[in-house]
Backbone:
């Protein structure tokens, strides 16, 4: 079985997790490609294949050709595709801009425009008071999706021959955020005590993603055993997170966003279980 894994810097946890368990899966062959930040948008479709844009920097093109010497990715060569990361985590976007009771405002119904641009500018409050409502957060999630790397890549994959497609988005920030981040730590400490609000944000994010994902894209959610207080990733699954092109270099103690290979193994195990279940139904 040939499988393709595409994504941003979060793909490292999957790649290095695969290094740990591939000897136990002799029938599977995984190919990886990732670019950090927004650079994955430089993958474009030409003649039904994914190629690196001619406008991409030479370094990006070299990395692509090192993984795919033919200079392209043909989805027909793979049994399934796993997309990794590619979209902002709604909890971190909202909670990092929150004052004391902003998360609780998410539970209040209201009709209002989205606040995504305000949140990205760090202006989630007005005159010291929260301005967020559930309707605003729902609108913000729609904006998050429509401007994401994920939406761009899905739109391009839709122009290619169909293949099974799975998605696992960015994990929650590490639980270490409560002690290492002066700006976001207080909001997450409050959120840990406001589980009703965190649950609402989780519902909004899950429902928003379900509404926006194209038919046929299967979501692999963050494993429950990795989640702390509903909005953070346990340090067991973030400590020592490695960089995709770092040759063993880690993101460092101040990184709050990336998971490690232990997390990647859990995602792969769920990915493989879904594929096996489908094979069983086909026989």
Residues:
């Amino acid at each position: 079985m040939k499988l393709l894994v595409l994504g941003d810097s979060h793909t490292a946890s999957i790649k290095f997790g695969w290094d740990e368990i591939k000897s136990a899966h002799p029938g599977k062959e995984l190919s990886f490609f990732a670019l950090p930040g927004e650079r994955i948008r430089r993958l474009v479709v030409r003649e039904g294949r994914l190629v690196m844009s001619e406008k991409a920097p030479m370094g990006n093109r070299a990395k692509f050709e090192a993984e795919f010497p033919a200079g392209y990715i043909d989805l027909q060569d793979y049994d399934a595709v796993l997309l990794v990361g590619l979209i902002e985590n709604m909890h971190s976007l909202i909670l990092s801009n929150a004052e004391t009771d902003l998360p609780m405002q998410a539970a209040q119904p209201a009709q209002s425009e989205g606040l995504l641009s305000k949140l990205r500018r760090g202006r989630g409050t007005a005159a010291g008071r929260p301005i967020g409502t559930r309707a605003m957060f729902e609108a913000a999630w729609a904006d998050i999706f429509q401007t994401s790397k994920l939406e761009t890549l899905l739109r391009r994959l839709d122009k290619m021959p169909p293949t099974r497609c799975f998605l696992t988005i960015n994990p929650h920030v590490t639980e270490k955020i409560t002690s290492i981040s002066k700006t976001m730590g207080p909001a997450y400490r409050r959120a840990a005590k406001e589980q009703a609000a965190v649950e609402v944000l989780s519902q909004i994010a899950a429902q928003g993603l379900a509404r926006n994902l194209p038919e046929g894209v299967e979501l692999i959610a963050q494993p429950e055993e990795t989640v702390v207080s509903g909005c953070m990733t346990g340090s067991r699954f973030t400590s020592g997170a490695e960089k995709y092109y770092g040759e063993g270099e880690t993101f460092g103690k101040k990184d709050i966003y990336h998971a490690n290979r232990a997390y990647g193994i859990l995602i792969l195990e769920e990915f493989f279980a879904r594929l096996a279940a489908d094979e069983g139904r086909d026989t």
The longest helix spans residues 261-282. Residues 99-117, 119-131 have pLDDT under 50 and may be disordered. The chain has eleven helices and eleven strands. The CA atoms of residues 254 and 279 lie 42 Å apart.
